[in-house]
Specification:
Helix content: 25-40%
CATH architecture of the largest domain: Alpha-Beta Complex
Radius of gyration: 29 Å
Number of helices: 19
Distance between the termini: 40 Å
CATH topology of the largest domain: Spore Coat Polysaccharide Biosynthesis Protein SpsA, Chain A
CATH superfamily of the largest domain: Spore Coat Polysaccharide Biosynthesis Protein SpsA, Chain A
Largest sheet: 10 strands, mixed
Length: 711
């Protein structure tokens, strides 16, 4: 039971587990350095209460020193000075270095764990602060150099260091009345200027947690800082060419155009519809629709380019761009809808405010799923694309747009490695300089590939969450769920990384401390539990001890199936007598994708035993090779590591029944399998528990290495 409780606590507190590992690494690397002088770097600590504090209150800096800014109301890591000093010593060009941070609080505040749930001996190793005991949580893993994020809010947070020579230069150039926020902003802008002139000035992010805020009740860092008024850009009045690829989708296109024309405040735009071969009735509908719009809006400029061709989103966008007269290009899906709200009407103005900046490449908008029923809170479809280990992913997708999600990723404008071409704004000159969309990516990842190219050319892509639209996702061409579409998607992703290998499992705007190798809409700590690792398969032979055990299991399993098929009453009696009735097993999903070791398969679900204590019950996953010969089966066996499934425990556990189902919170199943470890074929999925086999007949594992097909 103690081991169960320890594992349960560990799975409820992934950041504490990650933190233990980080603290051990810091101790190993910096434990020998008692002070920063040991690294040959003179360092001064400058406390501040707000990023709006004036720099004037500090003495004139020394050019050969490093100044460590530390926010009041928190604790600096004992290794922080050594970490910063080492970075400045090794990176001669570094002018500003910043690190990650977290918060202190109770288990209830940080992890939702009520007092008394776990014994003191389990929680004590993670407790900090002696008599004033507290825990650490809510980590703020920050992105690398992000100038546009800084324009949204002071994302450097509570701890950063500046080289004295640069601090001296900025204060002499702009005056000592600068706030800390303005000081950092000027350093960032100088870094951008040097970058655009072919030089490089290093703004370095150290992905280590070196500061702990005193309380979660501290002011929200996203709200605590604001962009000074003199940073605001002048309004743009240049023409925008809105390119809309569309085919056989006149009704949806009509909704898009209606809301675009009626609700968009910005008026200087033209519309270019690129149609790759709608059927005659649809084509007529579109031409009549355009005529009607022109009649109601005489100043409206709208073009209809019709040409029969195989669907290629990249080619259609490029064709529209060639016809465009505007200084800016806006690529827009025909299933986008403009919102009739004050914020919604400003969507294009908000995007243009960033697209006009010389260092900005592509600009994206926040996209919502359509609202369902009476639900007044929209769910997010897109707030930027991160490049995780598993590939490009829409972050916060499917989450309700309430509050500040992971330090404003749904409310602030962030630099991102990529944004979606469902709504993408870019200066035409930049688009042409980059070579447009790559037409060898006809369906998927064409927007990501363009954004990769833009970033490699020195441009920053910006996710503008001030611009809000509805996206009726994939109405135009359907979801990518068929085996053929999944195979194509897999091939295009491989091609993406062949062309840009530098971005394989890497993203400067997504911390390496966050989840990489599994689907994750939110921003979660990337601590690996045992179930996250690859499971080692054991091939059960037909002879020897494994063969004997396999035959005994199948004998029971086959007899039970025979009874179920022939006599339901006898089957129920058999299940009660043998305990089969109490075995429960469900496969939630079988996912095919990329992992750290290559192509992988992930089986997820849960299994539990009714009317007993599930703590420590051993479970095995069986993949049973399907053959025509019913008497012969190849079986791969995998250990199932415990995984937290509080939803299962909530349903199954009987709190007032000491003999009922207990300790089912770790009944989850997640088994990651290297595809190359299995021979090609189709496998049934089963769980071996208490020496009994149960299967989910609806779910299979299909291994076809010749085509990398996903089903």
């Amino acid at each position: 039971m103690k081991e169960y409780k320890q594992e349960l606590f560990a799975q409820k507190t992934p950041y504490l587990q990650w933190l233990k590992s980080q603290e051990a690494d810091l101790r190993a690397q910096y434990g020998q350095w008692q002070n920063q002088e040991a690294l040959g770097k003179q360092m001064y600590t400058l406390p501040f209460s707000s990023c709006m504090d004036s720099v004037k209150k500090y003495e004139e800096p020394a050019a050969d020193a490093v100044y460590l800014f530390v926010k009041e109301g928190g604790n600096l890591s004992e290794y922080a000075a050594a970490v910063f000093a080492k970075v400045f010593s090794e990176a001669v060009g570094a002018v500003l270095v910043y690190a990650d941070e977290d918060y202190r609080g109770s288990l209830r505040e940080l992890y939702g764990i009520e007092d008394g749930i776990f014994e003191d001996e389990i929680t004590r190793p993670y407790c900090m602060g002696g008599s004033g005991a507290y825990y650490r949580g809510a980590p703020w893993f920050k992105p690398d150099f992000s100038p546009d994020t800084l324009s949204s809010f002071f994302y450097l947070g509570s701890v950063f260091a500046i080289r004295g020579s640069r601090l001296l230069e900025i204060t002499r150039k702009y005056g000592e009345d600068l706030s800390i926020y303005e000081l950092v902003y000027r350093i960032f802008m100088d870094a951008l200027d040097r970058r655009q002139q072919g030089g490089w000035e290093e703004i370095i992010h150290v992905p280590k947690v070196l500061y702990t805020n005193d309380s979660l009740n501290c002011a929200d860092p996203v709200k605590a800082s604001r962009e000074p008024a003199d940073w605001k850009q002048n309004a743009v009045s240049d023409r925008v060419s809105i390119v809309i690829p569309s085919k056989d989708n006149a009704q949806v296109l009509q909704k898009c155009l209606q809301t675009l024309i009626q609700y968009t405040n910005y008026g200087n735009y033209e519309v270019i519809i690129v149609d790759n071969g709608s059927e005659p009735a649809q084509k007529l509908w579109i031409t009549d629709m355009i005529a009607a719009f022109r009649e109601k809006n005489p100043n409206l400029v709208i073009h209809y380019f019709y040409q029969m061709m195989v669907f290629n989103f990249s080619a259609m966008c490029n064709a529209g761009a060639q016809l465009a007269d505007g200084k800016y290009l806006l690529f827009l899906n025909d299933d986008i809808e403009v919102l009739d709200t004050d914020e919604g009407r400003q969507w294009l103005d908000s995007m243009l405010a960033y697209a006009r900046k010389p260092h900005v490449g592509a600009v994206g908008a926040k996209l919502y799923y359509p609202s369902l029923g009476n639900n007044t809170c929209y769910k997010i479809q897109h707030v930027g694309i991160t490049n995780m280990g598993i590939g490009p992913a829409h972050k916060l997708g499917g989450m309700e747009d309430t509050g500040s999600l992971y330090y404003g990723h749904n409310t602030q404008n962030y630099d991102m490695l990529a944004v979606t071409a469902a709504c993408m704004l870019i200066r035409k000159s930049v688009f042409e300089e980059a070579g447009g969309f790559d037409e060898t990516f006809p369906v998927a990842y064409n927007d990501v590939e363009l954004c990769f190219r833009l970033y490699r050319r020195g441009y920053f892509n910006v996710q503008v969450n001030d611009a809000v639209l509805i996206h009726h996702e994939s109405l135009s061409r359907g979801q990518d769920t068929s085996p053929e579409k999944q195979s194509r998607l897999f091939g295009e992703k491989n091609k993406l990384y062949q062309k840009h290998p530098v971005f394989r499992a890497g993203d400067p705007f997504y911390s390496p401390n966050l989840v990489q190798w599994k689907k994750d809409a939110a921003y979660h700590t990337g601590y690996l539990y045992e179930f996250d690792r690859y499971a080692k398969p054991i091939l059960l032979e037909n002879d020897g001890e494994s063969g004997k055990r396999k035959r005994a299991v199948f004998k029971k399993y086959d007899f039970r199936n025979f009874l179920n098929a022939s006599c339901g009453v006898m089957a129920k009696i058999y299940d009660r007598l043998t305990g089969y009735r109490d075995l429960m097993f469900h496969v939630d999903s079988v996912e095919y994708g990329d992992g750290a070791a290559g192509a992988c398969i992930t089986v997820e679900g849960w299994s539990a035993v009714r009317n007993m204590d599930n703590a420590g019950v051993p479970r095995k996953l069986w993949l049973i090779y399907k053959t025509r010969n019913f008497d012969f089966r190849s079986v791969y066996e995998f250990d199932i590591a415990p995984k937290l499934r509080e939803d299962v425990a909530e349903i199954l556990e009987e709190k007032d029944n000491p003999k009922g189902t207990r300790n089912a919170a770790l009944s989850g199943i997640q088994v990651n399998i290297e595809k190359s470890a299995l021979k090609p074929g189709v496998y049934s999925i089963g769980v071996l528990c208490k020496n009994k086999l149960i299967c989910d007949p609806e779910k299979i594992v299909n291994v076809d290495r010749d085509t990398e097909r996903k089903v």
